[in-house]
Amino acid sequence: MTNKYRDKLSEGGFGAVYKGKLSDGCLVAVKVLNKAKDNGESFLNEVVSISRTSHVNIVTLFGFCFEGRKRALIYEFMPNGSLEKFIRQENPSDSNRQLNWETLYQIAVGIARGLEYLHQGCNTRILHFDIKPHNILLDDDFCPKTSDFGLAKLCPRKESMVSMADARGTIGYIAPEVFCRNIGRVSHKSDVYSFGMMVLEMVGERENVNAESNHGSEYFPQWIYKRLELDEELGIWSVRNEDDKQRARKMIVVGLWCIQTTPSNRPPMSKLLEMLQGNLDSLEFPPKPFFSSPPRLSTEVDVDSPSSLIPYQIP
Fold first, then answer.
1. Which has the closest alpha carbon to 125: 150, 148, 159, 165?
2. Do 13 and 67 touch, CB atoms closer than 8 A?
3. Which domains are delineated in the chain?
4. Can you list the alpha helix ranges (DSSP code H) found in the chain?
5. pLDDT tens across 50-96, in order?
6. Which residue numbers are catalytic?
7. CA distances from 291 to 9, 251, 282, 283, 302 (A)
8. Global pTM?
9. Which residue of 97, 148, 154, 311 is surrounded by the most CB atoms within 10 Å?
């Protein structure tokens, strides 16, 4: 199927993904799980979770292989790869934005729709626990599809809280309650936090850790909150007209609501989707989250795809 693993698309903590072709000519992405790291839990999580889904913003699972210790997942092929490569540029001020603001905004809306479906549209609520640009795939038309359900948890629709023996996710996107339980219970609001961090990264294009940016080394979410609070210009280089400004401001406000430290202060995905699609003037200004910019880390929990964002430290 993969022509002897000749075309590698990506590699993560649990295995590599290869481009393949089915006998009918259909292109697929084949995720071959790492024998040394996978104990079967991530494989079962992915198969059980994604087999319960059917949504335009969730990647489609065509099938899987389970033969001895060989485990593979066969997904629809996404020609434009992951969102990560479109929003992470070494010198964004020296090149044109690869995705315009309309496309970025529509991607954010699509991801929100997919998460709302996972949280409210399935018979069993699915909590993803690893929302980040690397796990958002883009088709020919840049329609976003959430992928990689290896860390997902299932819970009844009437319940939103889950218990976990250990933290899971990627440094920079993990909600504070996941690793500091006295903040609140782990729930679907943990995905909301990760979504917000990702949306702010989409706006800032890694400027939050870029010491050469126009706001120096200050942490991007903190810097952009101050700009909004003082009703100043955004100061983002790629905002070129009023439409761009409206989309950027809407994404920033929604992102800041998502990253509230206390889970109960974060809106559910259904409300966030309304906010994204509604009028900017009707959006309530978010309270100030607790901000901190600790030393840069590249350590991850459960996964092996380093993030440029750092989680907020809790006092």
1. 159
2. no
3. 8-76 (3.30.200.20), 84-282 (1.10.510.10)
4. 41-50, 84-87, 101-116, 176-179, 189-204, 220-229, 242-258, 269-277
5. 888 999 999 999 999 988 888 899 999 999 999 998 887 655 544 54
6. 130
7. 35, 18, 25, 22, 25
8. 0.85
9. 148
